[in-house]
Amino acid sequence: MKTTKFLLTTAVMVISFASFSYAQTAPKVVGGDRDKHGCIGSAGYTFSVLKNDCVRLFEQKIQLKEVDPKGSSTSNTAVILSENNKKAEVFLPSSKSSTILSATRLGKRATWKKGDLTLLKSEKGYILKRANKVIFSS
User: Fold this and answer.
1) What is the residue range of the signal peptide feature (predicted)?
2) How distant is the alpha carbon of residue 67 from its chain centre?
3) Which of 22, 44, 120, 137 is the most exposed place for a label (fewest CB within 10 A)?
């Protein structure tokens, strides 16, 4: 009887340990990382406030490159404009969420601002400034 109890207890402990060990090392399921908007980060999606949808930043039409990189790599940022061009959504690599800028002037030299961030449209593309210093350009 004691041997049976011992074997039963040992078997339960081994099964419990194996289950715990598997749960700790089980691979994450691709697509199992949806955010609060349903966007799958592992598939490259992030939420756009202006589009009210999940987007891939690297597929966006307006891409800006870092002007003065600090290190061996250069980061990019994407910009999405609203349909009427009155809002610009900027996805800075240093921010967890996007920043919405409002148009202060539209036309050939369109300008969008929020706080110390300014997005300008030039003949050559776009320029993003922080506190009057160019940080990204196309």
Assistant:
1) 1-23
2) 20
3) 22
- Those residues whose C-beta lies under 8 Å from the C-beta of residue 96, and which sit 6 or more positions away, are none
Domain ranges for the chain: 55-137
pTM score: 0.75
37 within 8 A of 46, measured Cβ to Cβ: no
Q: How many CA atoms lie within 13 A of 85 on its CB side?
A: 11
- Which amino acid appears at position 95 of this protein? S
In this structure, what are the phi and psi dihedrals at residue 87, rounded to the nearest 5 degrees? -130, 145
How many C-beta neighbours within 10 Å does residue 61 have? 8
The continuous run of DSSP H or E covering 56 comes out as: strand 53-56
Residue range 13-64, pLDDT digits in tens:
555 555 554 445 556 565 578 888 899 989 999 999 999 999 999 999 999 9
Token pair for residue 34? 């949806």
3-state secondary structure at position 23: helix
Specify burial of residue 81 (Cβ count, 10 A radius: 0-12, 13-18, 19+).
buried
